[in-house]
Amino acid sequence: MPTRKVTRRQWLKRSAALAAGVGAAAAAPVVMPARAFGAADAVRIGVIGIRLRGGQLVDQFRRLPGVRVTAICDADTALFAGQLKKFDSGEEKVAAHVDFRRILDDPRIDAVAIASPDHWHALMTVWACQAGKDVYVEKPVSYNISEGRKMVEAARTHKRIVQTGTQNRSDTGLKAALAYLAEGPIGRMRLGLGFDFTGRRSIGTVDGPQPIPETVNYDLFRGPAPLVPLLRKTFHYDWHWFWDTGTGDCGNRGVHTFDMLRWFTGQKALPPRVVSIGGRFGWDDNGETPNTQITLFAYEPVPIIWEMTSLPRRQVDRQEDRFRGNRASMMFDFEGGYLCGHRGGARVHAWDHKLIRAFKGDGGGTHYANFIDAVRSRKDEDLQADILEGHLSSALCHLANVSYLLGRHRPTDAVKEAVGDHPVLGPALEDLLGNLTHNGVDLAKIRPTHGATLTLDTEKERFVGEAADWANMYLERTYRRPFVMPENV
């Protein structure tokens, strides 16, 4: 859609009008009882956020027997036409809303599927639970650790079924590989490695506030985030790379990897320590989140290391050299071999690289049906990815980012000296720096961010020890009224 240039005065006037227009309806929905399902009853779903992932969710749920998509919602009305075309047969009547609270107010809707920007996930989920709706919520489920725990509490308090969009948990190959490893064929697990190499491009720069598309209700789009001018060229998607609304590729891609790593290592809590190193290198743009990042989650007895870069990778990188070209988003060292896995299956090798066993998966395509089955059974234990799992895996993203945000910009040599010969972090840092050199980054001229080493009380999900006061400030956010997380969910 075309956009128009606006002056600062016009922008402020428009924002004030938008705020006034939605303010009267902005209170959290009234708590409503859930509907009981008969065997022949259709589960009626409203999809919130319909651009990319949300449009896919519309398709996925429409394919399931006994499910009806009865409403769609987005703060950008330009997205409605493309989704409504899917219902042109006239057999399905679909409402289109700008304000998602209209979906929560509708007693005919049983569940919501949330694919909004990250900063909205938790508040939408909590309000939906209070309104008697079951929830399918995309990853990362939360914007911070406190929100994730609130989501778990809301699901349990209101007896709601809340599924996380980490569909790898439903992959048949990965489940079979995990069952195989439990038999101990290659001994004890020693290390978990995660990789997210995305190959993105710079988002560019702007010299001031940009025009907001006329089809967008910007006040609702920002929601609990500060209402500030738009400072990026592309309105959609690039919100991922700004701290007010996104969590970077740590939350965008990393959560899937973190979830698989936790799943395979059997971890059911946060790690006792975390440290992250990285930065935004090779690009001169307005993005805030790192495009290169490594994070050590010091779980015991099996530590986890995660590597991410949006820059092009070398033809032969560390894990390809070591694992003979197995492309994977997770790998595990065992005493007698290693496993390479990703969405779609896994392969187990001996240390001489001989294939021991392969497990072909299905990509987790039954994840959506699993949610509907649990909606009908009313048993959260039937879920492949209950909200508690989503909270813990999303929390790893937040831990990495908090360490990074509390870090110091240091010369490359100083970072190398501080890491030293650490058996896990050292090789990851070497890989990070090698790839920067491959991309023409002069290591002598940059100052990577060496994140704070943070210690956690894993039971209370709070930071303790050095830098704890600062780190605990990132456990919550200041909500912009009236989009405020309830104290009692």
Radius of gyration, in angstroms, nearest whole number: 23 Å
Helical segment tally? 16
Q: How can the largest sheet be summarized?
A: 12 strands, mixed
Helix content: 25-40%
Class of the largest domain in CATH? Alpha Beta
- Going by CATH, the architecture of the largest domain would be 2-Layer Sandwich
Average of the residue pLDDT scores = 91
* Coarse shape: globular
Distance between the termini: 39 Å
- DSSP summary, beta strand count: 18
Query: What share of the residues does DSSP label as strand, in percent?
Result: 15-25%
Poorly predicted residue ranges = 1-27, 316-325
Total tally of structural domains? 2
Structural class: alpha/beta
Enter the CATH topology name of the largest domain.
Dihydrodipicolinate Reductase, domain 2
Any idea what the CATH superfamily of the largest domain is called?
A: Dihydrodipicolinate Reductase, domain 2
Provide an overview of this structure.
With 489 residues, the protein is an alpha/beta fold. It has 2 domains: 30-168, NAD(P)-binding Rossmann-like Domain (Rossmann fold), CATH 3.40.50; 170-364 and 386-475, Dihydrodipicolinate Reductase, domain 2 (2-Layer Sandwich), CATH 3.30.360. Helix content is 31%, strand content 18%. The protein is built from 16 helices and 18 strands. The radius of gyration is 23 Å and the shape is globular.
